[in-house]
Amino acid sequence: MTQYHAPLPALPPQKSRSDWATIKSLWPYVWASKYRVMVAMASLIAAKAAGLGIPTILKQIIDKISPSATVQGALLVPVFLLVAYGLLRIAQTLFNELREIIFFRVSENAARILSLKVFDQLHLLSLRFHLSRQTGGLTRDIERGNRGIRTLIGYSFMSIVPTMIEMCMVLVFLWVKYDWVFVTITAVALVAYIIYTVGITEWRTKHRIKMNEMDSHANQRAIDSLLNFETVKYFNNEGFESKRYDEGLGRFRKAAIASQTSLSMLNLGQQMIISVALIGILLYATQGVVAGTLSLGDFVLINTLMLQLYVPLNFLGMMYREIKQSLIDVDKMFTLLDAPPEVADASGALPLVVGSGRIEFENVYFAYNENRPILHDVSFAIEPNTTTAVVGKSGAGKSTLSRLLFRFYDIQSGDILIDGQSIKAVTQTSLRRAIGIVPQDTVLFNDTLGYNIRYGKPDASEAQVMAAAQAAHLGGFLSRLPEGLHTPVGERGLKISGGEKQRVAIARTLLKNTPILIFDEATSALDTQAEKAIQSAFDEAAQNRTTLIVAHRLSTIVHAEQILVMDDGRIVERGTHLDLLAKNGAYAAMWAAQQQDE
Questions:
Q1: Does residue 232 lie in a domain region?
Q2: What is the pLDDT of residue 314?
Q3: Out of 179, 447, 563, 575, which residue is the most buried by the measure of CB atoms under 10 Å away?
Q4: Cα(27)–Cα(330) distance, rounded to whole angstroms?
Q5: Where are the alpha helices (H) located in 18-70, listed in sequence order?
Q6: pLDDT digits 0-9 by tens, 476-492
Q7: In 235-358, at which residue ranges do the beta strands (DSSP E only) sit?
Q8: β-strand 516-520 against 546-550: which pairing, if any?
Q9: 260 with 366, same domain?
Q10: DSSP single-letter state for residue 444
């Protein structure tokens, strides 16, 4: 009878949302500072009211000092008006600066909260997600998203909204104070400008998207090459890497030129619309002055209002373009936030309670994808306070056991239990808190030795860190370093040897002090002498703990209470070292081969 296996989960698809959906998603982060937003909007309206009063006062000043004005009016009245003119300018600047200070806090607070959520979300997503992405492109997307949040909030509430409010105020003022012709010309020009700007910007967005893709691609190649600096040098491939990077830069250049060309078309059309509107308004105002229906002050007032309106409107196109780009960048951040974790805690999951520490694998089947099955009906138990070792050829599925125990992936069928509790039914945080691991490939943070050891227990004291280092046989190495624990290890720990890196990994796992231990080929980078030196540390650490050792060197696991021999995702032999030698099977052949090599 064919066993049923649950379908493999697919990575979350990249879905693009509408601009309004992105704005709607961002709004709660802005409204979190609602009192600041309300004060800033009040300051904005006050600044625009003062801005509208400036040309009105200027008109009265010009009318008072025109040739038809009396000598007394020309000498006395403008003094009061000039003071009012100056006060309005001060008020406009004051309220504008107050608005910017307040909204700066709003945008920074929103960017901080959202960036932290994305950072936390990336740590919640599965190992499969991260293995399928290039870190350079991902960090570039986050960087642009952060910048996009600030740009979107800044331009929207400090430029677009003020300009729209000013448009409405100017149109109402022209309607009340003058006649419909001024309102019509202004309104038609505004509508034409907005339609043209939106239409062309939407068309050229594809060029900006392409440009960003090429930018991320070139950046990924640069980061990948620099991270593998040694490999590039080993194979003398500096020229090859330079050519690959230049190809990426060339594609970016082509997309950037297309984007700039479309930008020039947009700017030209915008200027034509504004110029035609200004000519029409000034011609009509000039006729009014000649006919005597308008004063010279009215002419100046209308001209000033139009300049006040069209100058920021001239930048509206640029702002709209930046907002569109910011929406694209912010959308990528929200796409990451919306990505459901492949491995999630069950509803009502409880913390893992570790008593004796018994581990059971029951009929476990697992595949990374449909075409790559790894484990086939694997069953075994690790009794409390004992050591179980897993050996086998490369690709047999040994290291997969530790990844499944940590629940980096969910199995398709079967179950994994700790003290009778299915790891799917407990919280991932409590599960991983109970397990310590020394991985085969030790990755260190670009910080000090002390920081990397303390990572196993961030609140550990200096004495505890040093004790863990001594237990991992790092004492002699530290004594030769002038800076001791404060010695930087470099990017990915490249400043220290492979063996020293693994000792650091052992030290931080010992510092974590967990009831369950996993050694995933933890001595693979050590020579025989160093391996024997720290074997006692392993034995000491494994006391009173449930231990799983994934081993390549059989000499390191002869003491194990149980040895599992894996081949092609199946357990083909199991028993103690002596039992397996007596069977004269796969394990005995591996032992004989290694003894001959030694």
A1: yes
A2: 66
A3: 563
A4: 12
A5: 19-31, 34-64
A6: 788 888 888 888 887 76
A7: none
A8: parallel
A9: no
A10: -
Inter-residue contact 511 to 456 (CB < 8 Å) = yes
Going by pLDDT thresholds of 50, 70 and 90, the confidence category of residue 244 is: confident
| Tokens at 434, concatenated | 């109970």
Q: Which residue has the tokens 């002596």?
A: 578
Whether residue 385 contacts residue 516, with contact meaning beta carbons closer than 8 Å, is answered with no
**Residue 411: which CATH number?**
3.40.50.300
472 in any annotated domain: no
pLDDT of residue 5: 43
Contact between residue 376 and residue 566 where contact means Cβ atoms under 8 Å apart: no
Residue length of the chain: 598
Q: What are phi and psi of 518, to 5 degrees?
A: -130, 125
Report helix, strand or coil for 181: helix
Q: What is the rounded distance in angstroms from the CA atom of residue 310 to the CA atom of residue 297? A: 20
**Calpha distance 50→52 (Å, rounded):** 5
The residue from 338, 370, 404 where one domain ends is 338
Both tokens of 546, joined, read 């449930």
State the Rg of the chain over Cα. 35
- CA distances to 180, 275, 399 from 281, in Å: 12, 10, 77
* CB 434, CB 391: distance < 8 Å: no
- Cα separations (Å) of 215 from 162, 223, 255, 574? 33, 12, 10, 53
Clarify whether residues 183 and 148 are in a common domain.
yes
Which is nearest to 358 in space by CA: 377, 390, 385? 385
CA 300 to chain centre: 52
| DSSP-assigned beta bridge partners for residue 547 | 387, 517
CATH label of the domain that carries residue 39: 1.20.1560.10
- What span, in angstroms and rounded, lies between the C-alpha atoms of 84 and 59? 13
* Cβ-based neighbours of 444, under 8 Å, separated by 6 or more: 452, 489, 492, 493, 496, 501, 504
Q: Which ranges constitute the DSSP H helices of 481-527?
A: 498-512
Q: Are residues 331 and 422 in the same domain?
A: no
Using DSSP, state whether 519 is helix, strand or coil. Answer: strand
DSSP three-state, residue 168 = helix
> What is the spatial distance between Cα 572 and Cα 584, in angstroms, rounded to a whole number?
13
Residue with tokens 């980096």: 408
Examine the fold and report which residue of 338, 365, 382 is the final residue of a domain before the chain moves on: 338
- Residue-range definition of the domain harbouring residue 364: 356-434+548-598
- Note whether residue 448 is domain-resident: no
Q: What is the mean pLDDT of the chain?
A: 80
Confidence (pLDDT) at 12:
45
> For the purposes of burial, counting CB atoms within 10 Å of the CB of 152, is it exposed (0-12), middle (13-18) or buried (19 or more)?
buried
Tokens of 183: 């309102």
| Other C-beta atoms lying within 10 Å of the C-beta of residue 534 | 22
Predicted confidence (pLDDT) per residue in 515-525, tens digit: 999 888 766 65
Find how far residue 151's CA is from the centre of its chain.
Answer: 17
pTM beyond 0.85: no
Which pLDDT belongs to residue 427?
Answer: 92
Q: Is there a domain that residue 193 lies in?
A: yes
Distance CA 96, CA 163 (A): 13
Which spans in 339-454 are helix H? Answer: 398-405, 428-433, 449-454
Residue 257 identity = I
Domain count, the chain: 2
Half-sphere exposure of 590 (CA within 13 A, CB side): 23
